[in-house]
UniProtKB/TrEMBL annotation:
<protein>
    <submittedName>
        <fullName>GNAT family N-acetyltransferase</fullName>
    </submittedName>
</protein>
<dbReference type="InterPro" id="IPR016181">
    <property type="entry name" value="Acyl_CoA_acyltransferase"/>
</dbReference>
<dbReference type="InterPro" id="IPR000182">
    <property type="entry name" value="GNAT_dom"/>
</dbReference>
<dbReference type="InterPro" id="IPR053144">
    <property type="entry name" value="Acetyltransferase_Butenolide"/>
</dbReference>
<feature type="domain" description="N-acetyltransferase">
    <location>
        <begin position="5"/>
        <end position="138"/>
    </location>
</feature>
<dbReference type="Pfam" id="PF13673">
    <property type="entry name" value="Acetyltransf_10"/>
</dbReference>
Length: 138
């Protein structure tokens, strides 16, 4: 069993530099500094996974505050992956999800095989009734 006692979850959105580094180094699509500076303050909730003073993981909930919410930015630096730390992040986000309005729609886009993690927290695949779609601004 892996000893994760040195890690801790802080209920805060990561700093801009940490956010950009975590997205890039964990393999998520990077965003411009301008986009991150505009978007992060509008988060509904965020967590930072800490090892000492270093931010090594994160997760956020974004949305309109009432009807629609999305779990996003689940990222852990590669050197810290495979320790069950994403479950910690999802547990913290799930605690907040449980307080949302009962009619709220909470969604996420799952990269395989992370869909098995999200299923543990009550997320169901929506296909074939609906499928995720995206449009990238270029």
């Amino acid at each position: 069993m892996t000893d994760n006692s040195a890690y801790r979850i802080e209920p805060r959105v990561p700093a801009i530099d940490d956010y950009m580094r975590l997205r890039l180094e964990s393999g998520l699509t990077p965003f411009s500094r301008e986009a991150a500076e505009k978007g992060l303050p509008n988060s509904i909730f965020g967590v930072s996974l800490m090892l000492g003073e270093e931010t090594v993981g994160m997760g956020r909930i974004i949305g309109d505050g009432g009807c629609f919410f999305q779990v996003t930015d689940i990222a852990i630096l590669p050197a810290h992956q495979g320790r069950g730390l994403a479950k910690w992040i999802m547990a913290a986000l799930s605690d907040v999800i449980a307080t949302l309005p009962k009619t709220a729609y909470v969604s996420l886009i799952a990269d395989v095989p992370a869909n098995t993690l999200y299923a543990q927290f009550g997320f169901d695949e929506t296909a074939p009734r609906s499928v995720g779609m995206a449009r990238k601004v270029v």
